[in-house]
Design a protein that fits this description.
alpha/beta; seven-stranded mixed β-sheet; 4 helices; 20% strand
């Protein structure tokens, strides 16, 4: 099974009185993620399911991904992907859809970076940049606590060697 960890793109700044949950993608965030979604498509990303945090900025990121891929399923809002998403909640979602081949998870930092760090057994925490996408292969669906890095799209780079993430 392949999973994709997607950090939402750039959102508007936190300014009162707008609560954090209501922050939405900035114009630059929408534009940059459209480009990232095209790169994702060109890299062969074909999720059979897309799950997203219910926070607006993550939903908008998931919608851009869905539109760019011409994904024909529903983008699934799942509260488990809200801030605080961790490996246990990832396993819970995976348990709900054991027959899926490729699943995209759109969420937040530091959650996505922490999951990436844990699944790849990195010696130091890795922080995913806004709009970054990591493709991970779970060798055994029954052991979702270990994964292999297929690639990571971040900024204008494509990283395939997990050793680069260890520095």
């Amino acid at each position: 099974m392949r999973i994709y960890l997607v950090r939402h793109s750039e959102a508007v700044d936190r300014v009162p009185p707008t609560p954090d949950v209501a922050r939405y993608l900035s114009a630059r965030g929408r534009d940059s993620f459209r480009e990232m979604a095209r790169r994702f498509r060109d890299a062969g990303g074909v999720p059979t399911r897309i799950f997203t945090s219910p926070l607006i900025r993550a939903v908008q990121t998931a919608e851009i991904l869905s539109e760019t891929l011409r994904y024909d399923g529903d983008v699934i809002l799942d509260p488990r992907l809200s801030p605080g998403f961790d490996v246990a909640k990832l396993v819970s979602v995976l348990d709900d859809c054991p027959s899926e081949r490729e699943i995209a998870f759109v969420g937040h930092e530091p959650d996505m970076g922490s999951i990436l760090t844990r699944l790849l057994s990195l010696p130091h925490g890795y922080a995913m940049r806004k709009g970054a996408i990591a493709a991970l292969d779970l060798p055994n669906v029954g052991d979702p606590l270990r994964a292999d890095l297929a690639w990571l799209l971040t900024g204008d780079r494509r990283i395939e060697d997990p050793a680069i993430l260890m520095t």
